[in-house]
Amino acid sequence: xxxxxxxxxxxxxxxxxxxxxxxxxxxxxxxxxxxxxxxxxxxxxxxxxxxxxxxxxxxxxxxxxxxxxxxxxxxxxxxxxxxxxxxxxxxxxxxxxxxxxxxxxxxxxxxxxxxxxxxxxxxxxxxxxxxxxxxxxxxxxxxxxxxxxxxxxxxxxxxxxxxxxxxxxxxxxxxxxxxxxxxxxxxxxxxxxxxxxxxxxxxxxxxxxxxxxxxxxxxxxxxxxxxxxxxxxxxxxxxxxxxxxxxxxxxxxxxxxxxxxxxxxxxxxxxxxxxxxxxxxxxxxxxxxxxxxxxxxxxxxxxxxxxxxxxxxxxxxxxxxxxxxxxxxxxxxxxxxxxxxxxxxxxxxxxxxxxxxxxxxxxxxxxxxxxxxxxxxxxxxxxxxxxxxxxxxxxxxxxxxxxxx
Length: 405
Ligand code: CTP
What we know:
The chain is an alpha/beta fold. The chain is about 30% helix and about 25% strand. The chain folds into two domains: about 15-190, Rossmann fold (3-Layer(aba) Sandwich); about 195-405, CoaB-like (Rossmann fold, 3-Layer(aba) Sandwich). The protein is built from 13 helices and 20 strands. Strands 13-12-9-14-17-18-19-20 form an eight-stranded mixed beta sheet, sandwiched between helices. A six-stranded parallel beta sheet has the order 3-2-1-4-5-6, with helices on both faces. The structure holds cytidine-5'-triphosphate. Cytidine-5'-triphosphate binds near residues 282, 314, 315, 330 and 332.
């Protein structure tokens, strides 16, 4: 497995069309988010947008010419017709922000500036990110224009709720650049997991001792979140059952929050219906307090001799009889005898695949961006990975699942 940085837009050209709303000030950050994922970005600026963000800022970030006019007298590079060459070279045309005026002109098939002409001429997917005053957004004319554009197959990323530059509060904010870039990645990704329903458990569980204290572990949910994002990007329908974590899951997944091992077990049982693949990436507590103390345990004694624990339910072992044709993937967090322990767990828990990762060392396991270990399948295949980014490892795991499914 390679250790190159994850660049899902490498080799892709994204044509970013910026129209004239206040949110145009976010355009340089959108460029950065796309470029950090490996994309080449070409920018088209309308005259109005150039009042909010300068061509020079965008040119400095992209290192490429910025297109502003339909038929420039001084052709920037050649005698190409700009709106056609940009439309042709795009892997995706992104309009962010898309003003109410721009949406209206697009809905009517107009091509009276470089943005509308490029959108009309392209065969690539088009992603519109509307952003405007809430009343303009909710106006029946804008609603109708968006419906027309959606019916024609253009993709629309809804604006967010919040304070708007015009002083109103409501729906109309341009989503954050990272959110827009994530949508671009999804729309340019192969949808090779479309139709697959995947249930993924993530994070630690917390087992309460009293209203103040609990037992947990070092899991942050990073590996699970990488799997959730990768599966969503590739078109799978994903449900996440998550213990308490600080991170945010990919916006396309349905998230069910749980706290304890027994809550996670109940949620997994309920969520299994109609699922094709279960990935148990959660670090489930093995032992839980024997009894929850409703009142805070006071420290008024010099030592506390024992905290009585009982085993928690083993989720995989409990649902083993419900497996049927489903594909089950487990994880094994190990400090020693990685392969032997993982093989034993795969067999005992009735898994089709197990991802054994080393914990307790730098660059692998809990909270780390990378992981090291070995991927073992019930059919006998195995693949070693060393300090591989969790995002990359997630894709490799999904490739294996797809191959075996
Ligand atoms: N797992 C589970 N229920 C538990 C504990 C673990 O379903 N109560 C799942 C984990 O989500 C993981 C796999 O079983 O996919 C292996 O978890 P791991 O913690 O490595 O192993 P344990 O079964 O807990 O065994 P040990 O702690 O002895 O290594």
